[in-house]
Write a structure and sequence with these properties.
Strand order of the largest sheet: 1-2-3-4-5-6-8-9
Low-confidence stretches: 1-43, 350-366, 370-375
Structural class: alpha/beta
Number of strands: 21
Shape: globular
Distance between the termini: 80 Å
Largest sheet: 8 strands, parallel, barrel
Bound molecules: ligand G3I
Number of helices: 13
Oligomer: single chain
Strand content: 15-25%
Length: 502
């Protein structure tokens, strides 16, 4: 029997009409015979599994797999049917793959790799450099010895899987909740350990996409999210090889879906990396949260796929929260339908509503950029409502310092030079910089890098708009210390700023 390739949603039904018409004109018996032989799917038929539904828009839907469960047929039946991407839950971690220094072990990892690829699934490697699940010998190392051990580990594991994996989580969970670096033994080898890991990984296997992976980076306004974002941006600006960011998306243990999740995804994507939801689970499998997180991914063209962290509730690291899409008996839960429906609704190709990583600019007013004002010398940027100036707190020179309103005093941390390339420079080498493109994104200083989130239009209507976002520089209050952000242009006084002589 000939199988017809699955129809894509949105495929032009009219293109099939001539065939159908010809069949109708032909002998009725022939039609009946054909109908019996071929099942012609409706062009708009929804896919019936998670993997197939995600594939319609070029994405994947994956799960974590544990080698120890591959003998459980109830488990493997669901996994093989529903998913088209697999992440080994523990088997590719450092303790599993290099239990003794220099002695690599791939038995369980290969078991999962073979099981997945024999069924046409792809595999995501997890993870090469991590403070946790280190073998004892690595835990006791430090300094240059540990640095070399990390490099050797990456080379040893990546050589084994060279050319075979779709993604590698090169570095996992390297940040604290406050956005600073986690104090691990790896961090103790020097702040550059993460970029060394990525450079090593690229050289070891140029074919695989290299990801940074973390939890609690789903809320755009959370400090940890900003910390990771600033690192990725720094890497992109300096040519450190990185292709993707994995947002673990554990909405368990007290976490839940933030309203700005899509902004987070699109803001990371705007840096020029893929994003993926890599370890999804949700307390009690809330249907609205599962639908919302799926929809957010579908709305961002560079969101390449979703992986749930286990098959059935009983397989979850947080099984008491029943956070997955199948119950312990292997039955699909209500959340399964909400995810499947959201995947099917996305249709073929990246979702048109988010074909651009940047939100559409507001059209509440149509400002035109002024002829370059006050170029050639420094100006202050004065808020019309407050009379206060845009100021770098404490004259900080640190990347990522968010600017504020403060009494105008004309010192260097309030001196901005508007350049011909539309940068607003401070201290000669740093630029006013939008930390994202969504509503509420922080306006900060960052080393000038020529990107569009550091370009601003000073408009004839008194607003200053970000070239990347189209949104207006905006403040929440008129007080000293009021933080500066970008927001949809509203025409209100808190978005009126002018460049003025010092
Ligand atoms: O296999 C041994 C078993 O022989 C032993 O008797 C038992 C005693 O505790 O431990 C078993 O190993 C456990 C292993 O899971 C396999 O079940 C480890 O103790 C346990 O620590 C380990 O937990 C894993 C955890 O990472 C470790 O950090 C979870 O399965 C795994 O789901 C979880 O996955 C992480 C991601 O890698 C990174 N993001 C967070 C996520 C959840 O913590």
């Amino acid at each position: 029997m000939t199988a017809r390739p699955p129809a894509h949603r949105g495929e032009d039904r009219a293109t099939r009409r001539p065939l159908r018409t010809a069949l109708l004109i032909g002998a009725t018996t022939a039609v009946a015979a054909l109908t019996a032989m071929f099942v012609i799917p409706d062009a708009n038929a929804a896919a019936s599994t998670l993997g197939a539904a995600a594939a319609q828009s070029g994405r994947y839907f994956g799960t974590a797999i544990a080698a120890g469960k591959l003998g459980d047929s109830a488990y493997t039946t669901i996994a093989a049917r529903e998913f088209n991407m697999v992440t080994p839950e523990n088997e590719m971690k450092i303790d599993a793959t290099e239990p003794q220094r220099g002695q690599f072990s791939f038995g369980n990892a290969d078991q999962i790799y073979n099981w997945a690829t024999q069924r046409g699934m792809k595999v995501r490697g997890h993870t090469l450099a991590w403070h946790s699940q280190q073998p004892g010998w690595m835990q006791s190392l430090s300094g240059s010895t540990l640095r070399q051990a990390m490099i050797d580990h990456i080379n040893g594991v990546m050589a084994h899987y060279k050319g075979k994996l779709a993604y590698w989580d090169v570095v996992n969970e390297a940040f604290n909740e406050d956005g600073s670096r986690r104090q691990s033994n790896l961090q103790g080898t020097g702040n550059d350990w993460i970029e060394v890991a990525f450079r090593t990984a690229r050289a070891a296997d140029p074919s695989v996409k290299l990801c940074y992976n973390d939890y609690n980076i789903e809320n755009w306004s959370y400090a940890k999210t900003q910390g990771v974002y600033n690192m990725i941006r720094d890497f992109k600006s300096r040519g450190v090889p990185i292709d993707c960011v994995g947002l673990q998306t554990h909405f368990t243990g007290g976490s839940s879906l933030p309203g700005n999740f899509q902004t987070t995804l699109s803001s990371f994507a705007a840096l020029g990396v893929d994003v993926a939801l890599t370890e999804v689970d949700v307390t009690n499998a809330s249907t609205s949260q599962y639908a919302g997180l799926t929809q957010a991914c579908m709305n961002v063209s560079r969101c390449v796929g979703i992986t749930v962290w286990g098959v059935r509730d009983s397989d979850s690291w947080r099984s008491s929260e029943s956070p997955l899409l199948f119950n312990g008996s292997g039955q699909a839960k209500a959340a399964y339908s909400s995810v499947l429906n959201a995947l099917n609704a996305a249709g073929p190709g990246p979702s048109p509503s988010a074909s651009s990583s940047s939100p559409a600019p507001s059209t509440s007013s149509s400002p035109s950029a002024s002829p370059t004002p006050s170029t050639g010398g420094a100006s202050k940027i004065v808020g019309s409502q407050s009379g206060r100036c845009i100021d770098v707190p404490n004259s900080s020179h640190n990347n990522g310092t968010r600017v504020q309103l403060y009494d105008c005093h004309g010192l260097t941390n309030q001196q901005w030079t508007y350049t011909a390339s539309r940068q607003l420079q401070v201290y000669g080498s740093m630029c006013l910089d939008a930390a994202g493109s969504g509503n509420g994104s922080a306006v900060q200083i960052y080393s000038c890098n020529g990107q569009t989130n550091q370009q601003w239009n000073v408009n004839s209507n008194g607003t200053i708009t970000g070239v990347q976002s189209g949104r207006c520089i905006d403040v929440w209050s008129t007080a000293n210390g009021a933080q500066v952000q970008i927001y949809d242009c509203s025409g209100q006084a808190n978005q009126q700023f002018r460049l003025a002589a010092l």
